[in-house]
Amino acid sequence: MNINAHIDGSLEIIAFRLNDQSFCVKTRSIREIRGWVPVTPMPHAPYEVLGVINLRGMVIPVIDLAAKLGMAGTEASERSAIIVTDVNGMTMGLLVEGVSDILTVPATSLQPVPSNAGQATQFVEGILTHQDQMICFLNLEELFSAGGLSVGGGGGGAGPGWEEF
Fold first, then answer.
1. Residue 53 host element (H or E)
2. Cβ distance 99 to 16 under 8 Å?
3. The CheW-like domain covers which part of the protein (predicted)?
4. Does 5 reside within a domain?
């Protein structure tokens, strides 16, 4: 696993919900967390690109992270959040159902992804166990690496293997 842990062996993560499942990412790439604001749709954008928002004079795309992962898309509501992140030199907003916590957890709580979990987990660094819950640790750099925004599931259906988490 290529996780950057602190010298003391801890990981700083932000935990959030997608389709009633727990996920997290490293806080290092997060610029800010915003409440839901309506987006301006972009014609012919990939399914997971909801549109763009103006972030203090900078236009950034907003991605439905659940759709990007091949899951059913997120229904935006007042409880939804946009996680503004810098990934591979690109600033974007990630729509999630809601942010549950910002945590510092021991790196030893990160477990490897089961080898038989299939291709659906190719963007998962591992599984964290925290207070009796399982949290999928996403690698945003991998998720958005090859081919830009249109990489990944899309399509809006439940991707193979996600039901297992």
1. strand 49-55
2. yes
3. 10-149
4. no
Predicted pLDDT of residue 9: 80
Q: Is residue 149 part of a domain?
A: no
What is the pTM (predicted TM-score) of this model?
0.80
Q: Rounded CA gap, 35 and 149, in Å?
A: 22
What is the number of structural domains in the chain?
A: 1
pLDDT of residue 123: 85
User: Domain span at residue 69?
Assistant: 10-144
Distance from the Cα of residue 49 to its chain's centroid: 14
Check if the beta carbon of residue 11 is closer than 8 Å to that of residue 24.
no
Q: What is the pLDDT of residues 132-142, one digit of tens each?
A: 888 999 999 98
Does a structural domain hold residue 137? yes
What pairs with residue 35 in β-bridges? 81
| Residue found under tokens 């399914």 | 47
pLDDT digit string, tens, across residues 137-161: 999 998 888 544 443 333 333 333 3
* Helical ranges in 14-162 per DSSP H: 65-68, 140-143
Q: Is residue 20 part of a domain?
A: yes
CATH number of the domain within which 117 lies: 2.40.50.180
What residues contact residue 135 under an 8 Å CB cut-off, 6+ apart? 13, 15, 22, 23, 24, 127, 128, 129
